[in-house]
């Protein structure tokens, strides 16, 4: 009982960290002004059991943050912050109806995620996974076969970016260093940043038909879900390469697998897929023309620390009744 009383000290707000692996920097920042309680496990049940009494929730999970969890926290809850740039897993309407401010972590992960996007694009276009398979199988040719494992050049190519937000722009900046011929982008509107990057605003159909590389860097919404579907792949160039660093559900995965198997497109590089974790019997794992990484776009030491720091600082702002550094308008 003494433990519980000291943990939920009345004079200090309680911040509930809903993930046991959050970087220490978040605790260092929050502990100055709050009682910080970390969940004991990664599962929803642990969160539901332990969130009660929180004034703020530090979310760092792909699990849904919904009415049930907000109810379990209790009526004193007044701040929610997610340690992620994406927030498709958060029930914004529910937060809005309760008047709870909410923030995410834009910008601090742009470079790490854009680096991963380029890795996937190059890995897929240069057939890196297939090459490794050949080494493992002992089928690396002893003679110089000039036609073996030929890939596609990124230099001189037309690149299409679906979603020229902060990450899309970081991808475009990198692409300029690879001497691409054109950068196309699509989204809700033409952007000044697009002009500065020398990128052309086009509609989805034009981007679809003209791109040699397609990068998916859009948030997952009802509008973008399955934006790359059977029809999209049928319009892509046969030499085309698709890269997804956004969310798996931006792609109709069954349609992608079909397009990769039938040669409708050349290759794919995916950091995100459906479901996550991917089933180990997924057909995606059997295809030589796919490079896969397990949703690690932002997984560098510095980036994860920066995300944790920003989330913690947003929570302090919210608890003080001030505007968060990176609020989401509800
Ligand atoms: C993000 O920040 O949204 C990354 O995808 C990690 O979930």
From TrEMBL:
GO cellular component terms given for this protein: cytosol
Pfam family, one: 2-Hacid_dh
Protein's organism: Rhynchophorus ferrugineus
Domain D-isomer specific 2-hydroxyacid dehydrogenase catalytic positions: 22-324
Residue stretches in coiled coil: none
Segments forming domain D-isomer specific 2-hydroxyacid dehydrogenase NAD-binding: 119-297
Protein origin, superkingdom: Eukaryota
SUPFAM superfamilies named in the record: Formate/glycerate dehydrogenase catalytic domain-like, NAD(P)-binding Rossmann-fold domains
Record keywords: Oxidoreductase, Signal
Family statement drawn from the similarity comment of this UniProt entry: Belongs to the D-isomer specific 2-hydroxyacid dehydrogenase family.
MF term (GO), any: hydroxypyruvate reductase (NADH) activity
Name by which UniProt lists this protein: Glyoxylate reductase/hydroxypyruvate reductase
């Amino acid at each position: 009982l003494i433990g519980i009383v000291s943990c939920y000290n009345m004079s200090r707000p309680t911040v509930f960290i809903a993930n046991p692996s959050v970087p220490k920097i978040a605790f260092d920042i929050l502990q100055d002004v709050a009682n910080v309680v970390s969940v004991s496990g990664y599962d929803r049940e642990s969160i539901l059991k332990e969130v009660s009494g929180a004034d703020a929730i530090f979310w760092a999970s792909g699990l849904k943050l919904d009415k049930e969890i907000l109810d379990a926290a209790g009526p004193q809850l007044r701040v929610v912050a997610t340690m992620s740039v994406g927030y498709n897993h958060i029930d914004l309407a529910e937060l809005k109806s309760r008047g709870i401010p909410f923030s995410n972590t834009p910008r601090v992960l742009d470079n790490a995620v854009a680096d991963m996007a380029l890795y996937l694009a190059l890995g897929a276009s240069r057939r890196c996974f297939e090459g490794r398979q050949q080494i493992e199988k002992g089928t690396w040719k002893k003679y110089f076969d000039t036609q073996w494992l030929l890939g596609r050049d990124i230099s001189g190519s037309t690149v299409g970016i679906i979603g020229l937000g902060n990450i899309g722009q970081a991808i475009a900046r990198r692409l300029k260093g690879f001497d691409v011929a054109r950068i196309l982008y699509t989204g809700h509107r033409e952007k000044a940043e697009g002009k500065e990057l020398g990128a052309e605003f086009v509609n989805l159909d034009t981007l679809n038909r003209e791109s040699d590389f397609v990068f998916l860097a859009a948030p997952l919404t009802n509008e973008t879900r399955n934006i790359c579907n059977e029809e999209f792949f049928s319009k892509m160039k046969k030499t085309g390469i698709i890269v997804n660093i956004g969310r798996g559900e931006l792609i109709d995965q069954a349609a992608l697998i079909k397009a990769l198997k039938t040669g409708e497109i050349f290759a794919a590089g995916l950091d995100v897929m459906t479901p996550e974790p991917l089933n180990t019997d997924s057909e995606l794992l059997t295809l030589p023309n796919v490079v896969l990484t397990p949703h690690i776009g932002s997984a560098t030491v510095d980036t994860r620390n920066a995300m944790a720091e920003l989330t913690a600082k947003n929570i302090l702002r919210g608890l003080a009744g001030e505007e968060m550094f990176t609020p989401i308008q509800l």
